Amino acid sequence: MDFLTTPWFDAVQANLDTNEQLRAAAANMELSIQQVVTDVPGGGEIRHNFTIDHGAIHVGLGAVENPDATLTASYASAAAMNRGELDLMSAFAGGKVLLNGDLMVLMQNQATLSQMNAAFEAVRDGTTYAS
After folding, report:
1. Structural fold of domain 6-124
2. Element containing residue 32 per DSSP (H, E)
3. Does the first or last residue of the chain, that is N or C, have fewer Cβ atoms within 10 Å of its Cβ?
4. What is the pTM for the complete model shown?
């Protein structure tokens, strides 16, 4: 399935829905993160988001109103992070990811957010990337 498409997000969401440990860790959280992927092959950008609302976790295409943080990265950087070739902290430190919003919210919830990686890793092998 193609990276950053509806079927890809559906597969990630299915993994999130079955992760009881993550849902328990997020039980008292409210968080919304907007992600913007620029320089998408074929032109334009893709906006997607993930939200946590007291254990309910959603990831998908589209914008979210008043996000706590917005992360912006090129398609190449987003693909490298999804493939596990680049971690978010290195990308941020190297200027490959730009952050707008409340960095403290991200830092305070880092442990829970890192648990979300399992859902992305679960679909990694079946993901294809545009060139």
Report:
1. Nonspecific Lipid-transfer Protein; Chain A (3.30.1050)
2. strand 30-38
3. C
4. 0.90
